[in-house]
Amino acid sequence: MSQIAVSDRKATLAEIRPHAAAMRRLVLEFGLGRPRLRADGTVIVHSDEPGYRSVMRFSAAASDVVGAYVHVITDDVPGAVTVADL
After folding, report:
1. Which of 1, 58, 60, 78 is the most interior residue, by most CB within 10 Å?
2. Longest Cα pair distance anywhere in the chain, in angstroms?
3. What CA–CA distance (Å, rounded) separates 67 from 86?
4. What is the pLDDT of residues 10-63, one digit of tens each?
């Protein structure tokens, strides 16, 4: 179980980039797609699943890898516009 809580410090872009390969593997493991990264360190993914259960599980696993809370949103929200590939 993840030791990271939402109240923990949010991971930065610089903290996430070194873990990009592991994050891409997690995206596949959780059935998500099209991982991208916003300049503020937010990870954007695509999910065909209704609800956000797999997205929350991905966020927890990614947070464990990075060592800080990884904020994850789906690509169906306005905040997902300005992103780069992960």
Report:
1. 58
2. 32
3. 18
4. 999 999 999 999 999 999 999 999 999 999 999 999 999 888 899 999 999 999
Would you state the structure tokens that stand for residue 82, as one six-digit string? 């300005």
Instruction: Round to whole Å and give the CA distance between 78 and 13.
Output: 19
Report, as an integer, the average pLDDT of 64-82.
84
Tokens of 56: 């929350």
Cβ(60)–Cβ(2) under 8 Å? Answer: yes
- How confident is the model at residue 80, as a pLDDT? 58
**How far is C-alpha 85 from the geometric centre of its chain's CA atoms?**
12
- CA separation, residue 31 to residues 15, 39, 82 (Å): 24, 24, 23
